[in-house]
Amino acid sequence: MRIAAIFLSAVPWVAHAQATATTCNAAELTGTRAITITGRNVSSSGALRQMLQAVGTATFDGVSTVTFNLAVSSSSSAAASQKWSGTYSIQSSCLGAVTLTSGSTAVFTLIPYSSGASFSLTGQDATYAYAGTGTSQPVACATSSYSGAYVFSGNGGSNTVGGLLQFDGAGGIEGSWSVATEGGAASSTVSGTYSVSAPGCVATANLTDQNNVAYALDFSISGTNGANFDLIGVSNAAVGALAFTGSGHATFTYPGLAVENAAGISGGTPPGSLFSIYGYGMSTGKAQAESTAWPTTLASSQVTVNGELAPLYYADNAALGSEGLIDAQMPLDVPPGVATVVVKNGTAVSNAVAITVPSTAIPGVFIYGTNHASAQNFPSYDLNSATTPAKAGTVIVVYFTGGGAVQGASSINTGHPTPSKTFPLVTTNYSVTIAGISATVDYIGLTPTLIGVYQADIVVPTIAGGDHNLVITIDGVASNTTVVSTN
Q1: Is the pTM of this model over 0.85?
Q2: Same domain, 230 and 294
Q3: Looking at the domain assignment, is residue 67 inside a domain?
Q4: For residue range 301-336, what is the model confidence (pLDDT) as tens digits?
Q5: What would the pLDDT profile of 54-82 be if each residue is shown by its tens digit?
Q6: 230 exposed, middle or buried (CB, 10 Å; 0-12, 13-18, 19+)?
Q7: Is 1 among the domain residues?
Q8: Does one domain contain both 181 and 35?
Q9: Other CB atoms within 10 A of residue 487 CB
Q10: Per-residue burial over 424-442, b = 16 or more CB atoms within 10 Å of its CB, e = otherwise
């Protein structure tokens, strides 16, 4: 995977299947979803019809209880926090219902889809007729979860609005938009700050335009990778006040996806393992660590994770043509959860991006060529390949990262090689298959004298000669599927 999406602040990143019956139940919706709701006053009409707009989260317990935490605006009031709660049920036909008993008395028709990742709502109370949608979102968020440029559009009844918002990942936001109404359009530039509420991934922004008109925006991240958001906005203008609801989409693939396990797999990088960053303008040239211990500066580049400098192995501002690459080690003391990564090139600072630091192993096998595992035949240490295959009963040494916790971790230091006289085995259950056949593992753990690299010494099972799929599984998490050669 090669995704360019982390930027310095100066950059403005057929087959037919037989149909099967679908059945649902309340457990189809478990956990928190981003939600946006629009309401129209049922007792008014025409241009004067009062509207309600809301954005926030809906949390389902998987049994019968649902809670909505919303920022709500109407034609007569600015955004205000509201909590609605009640019960829900879902029939086997996937047709469900929500009955609110606190904060609102609305009754909704509820229909989950995409295996419960999303749902639709329609309903009514004494004042409004509602329509809404809900979608999955990240498990947790930080300020850096909103990062980079998002294009957005919205509707405020008689007005439409659209433009671009740029988040720096550290609480700063700039943008421009155009408001169209009654055949005319007016453009504004805005700037201000935003903050994120980690539970629910909801953000609030306060902006001011060039005419000193203030705006309040409320966002809720939608999509498990944070690439989209729902929003409502309202201005404080005395004349021509603007209120709208809309959605935004990252102009590039979400920046957090530009930081990945160094073996090129998704899922995050556990502490002590290696990760790669792709982007633009991240270094002044090309450099590689030359000392035994890795430096924290290469080619004018520095990388921080939650503010802590990460050891760097490689930096190249043109590794992939115009796109740059940095390889680094995840500091050992970074706690699992959402972490923030920032690149500094001299005095220029990138947007901050949110990444996942998993609490379990996420094994990623290094590859070369066409998905061939980086492996050596033992005891010759020849590179395993189609021309130098391994015989059944012999050992191959396969190199990977993301192996997770190891024994004797106190002897391992961030940025320093694994001691040559220790063999830190992984501490959780593991298994290896070659050609789908379970293989004996003589050793699996950190590689002595290297930094952040693991190895698995694997006995080749009795199989036919040729290229075969290899999978390493640690703590129930399977690696990428790669190839090894046997004869």
Answers
A1: no
A2: no
A3: yes
A4: 999 999 999 999 999 999 999 899 999 999 999 999
A5: 999 999 999 999 999 999 887 656 668 89
A6: buried
A7: no
A8: yes
A9: 12
A10: bebbeebebbbbeeebebe
